Amino acid sequence: MSINSNTQVLELYFSPTSPYARKCRIILLEKGLQEQVKLTVAIPSDNPPELVEANPLGTVPALRLSPDEVLCESPVICEFLDSLSSSRLFYPIEQSARFQALALAALADGIMDASVTCVLESRRPKEKYYSEWVARKENAILRTLKSLEKHNLSDDYPWQIGSMSLAVALEFLNFRLNHLQWQDEHPALAQWLAVVSRKPSMRETAPLNSV
Hints:
By secondary structure, this protein is of the alpha+beta class. Helices cover 51% and strands 9% of the residues.
């Protein structure tokens, strides 16, 4: 990157309820980068000009590094933000631990993708609502949770990109798809989430605290 991150303020475009942008905001808080990154609310459905100019896809998060340089999509932005400081690394350096974290993050992102699909479908007119597609996505979410239940996540499980992404994904389920009532069938995940959701960075970025 051509940017000198120590002298220039970056700008993160985000939506308060976006789970993808929430991951970036959590890393900002955990690594103490608030002074280096300006937060700008940009609701994709409103097509704000500043967001479309920064990211032609019109999605959040998007991180402006300079007038001519922007990073898009949460996996790229999260890793970049993590590289700005060697303290509290979210991406393990050791290869095995790194790919274990990335594998968990990929499953968590998949849960978010399926959840967002269900939310968007629910906003379509009733006559255009594709119930079979929603059921397929919800089944995919529940299958993934069943698999993750076997991970036996403990309270002292490393807080890195994988576990953080999973916590965000589970809280997004509670926020947007609470009819799934996933906690009863996945008590280990529910207990783990109850602990990590008390982290200051999780509380400060919680979608229920957003307008």
